[in-house]
């Protein structure tokens, strides 16, 4: 099966600032990530790196500046209309849903112009991305039957499924043991390159 690969989006942050309760955590941040590039943001806990990711994703408000994807300003838009995929720290899979239903969760149209309108289109897309991450044979399993590394690949597939050109990863390997972390890190890096997506990872782990 040929996986639908789109050029990754160009991400630009211009003078971005944000914080909590009147305290500024991030200020005057300028950043550009080119199409298909991967950027790692390294910093200690409390340094503001997750705040940056949440502002890009639309989960935290921007107090100043602009966020653009492919030249289109997205910071005024709600998260579900930004076309950005997010892989959270723990994967955050729904334990009562199968792997396929977890991946397809974000394919329910939110507006009449959304892709994947029909059930057949959504099922085909789920098969595509599960094939990409090497888990097509586990589509009917529950997450509890997967290893930690497999669960992270499902989380990545779910982020890729809507055709997001930009994928954000928030400490995606920190919950894995040291022996598994290096292998999963290499797998996810290769999968992102294969998908063509632009990616931003935040981490405190220099490796």
Give short descriptive properties of this protein.
single chain; 8 strands; four-stranded antiparallel beta sheet; alpha/beta; 29% helix; four-stranded parallel beta sheet; globular; Rossmann fold; 207 residues; 5 helices
Description:
- This protein has 207 residues and is of the alpha/beta class.
- The chain has one domain (11-203): 3-Layer(aba) Sandwich (Rossmann fold).
- It has five helices and eight strands; from the N terminus they run βββαβββαααβαβ.
- It has helices at 49-57, 99-104, 119-132, 148-160, 178-195; strands at 11-20, 23-33, 38-42, 64-69, 72-73, 84-87, 166-170, 198-203.
- A four-stranded antiparallel sheet has the order 2-1-4-5, covered by helices on one side.
- The termini are far apart.
- The model has no long low-confidence stretch (mean pLDDT 87).
Secondary-structure-derived class: alpha/beta
- Uncertain segments are none
Cα-atom Rg, whole angstroms?
17 Å
Which term fits the overall shape?
globular
Task: Count helical runs.
Answer: 5
CATH class: Alpha Beta
Kindly report the CATH topology.
Rossmann fold
What is the tally of beta strands?
A: 8
Strand content: 15-25%
CATH hierarchy: architecture: 3-Layer(aba) Sandwich
Strand order of the largest sheet: 2-1-4-5
Count of individual domains: 1
Q: Give the helix proportion (percent range).
A: 25-40%
Distance between the termini: 34 Å
Mean pLDDT rating: 87
Give the full name of the CATH homologous superfamily: P-loop containing nucleotide triphosphate hydrolases
Largest sheet: 4 strands, antiparallel
Write the element-wise H/E pattern from the N-terminal end onward: EEEHEEEHHHEHE
């Amino acid at each position: 099966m040929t996986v639908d690969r789109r050029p990754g989006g160009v991400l630009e942050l211009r003078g971005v600032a944000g914080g909590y309760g009147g305290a500024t955590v991030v200020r005057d941040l300028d950043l550009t990530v080119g199409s298909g590039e991967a950027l790692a943001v390294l910093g200690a806990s409390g340094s503001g790196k997750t705040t940056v990711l949440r502002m890009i994703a639309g989960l935290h408000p921007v107090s100043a500046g602009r966020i653009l994807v492919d030249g289109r300003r997205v910071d005024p838009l709600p998260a579900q209309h930004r076309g950005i995929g997010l892989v959270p720290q723990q994967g955050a899979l729904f334990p009562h849903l199968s792997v396929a239903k977890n991946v397809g969760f974000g394919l329910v149209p939110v507006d009449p112009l959304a892709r994947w309108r029909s059930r057949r289109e959504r099922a085909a897309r789920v098969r595509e991305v599960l094939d990409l991450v090497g888990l097509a044979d586990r589509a009917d399993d529950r997450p509890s039957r997967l290893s930690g590394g497999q669960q992270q690949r499902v989380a990545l597939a779910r982020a890729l499924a809507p055709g997001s050109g930009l994928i954000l990863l928030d400490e995606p390997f920190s919950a894995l043991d040291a022996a598994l972390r290096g292998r999963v890190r290499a797998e996810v890096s290769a999968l992102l390159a294969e998908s063509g997506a632009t990616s931003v990872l935040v981490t405190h782990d220099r490796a």
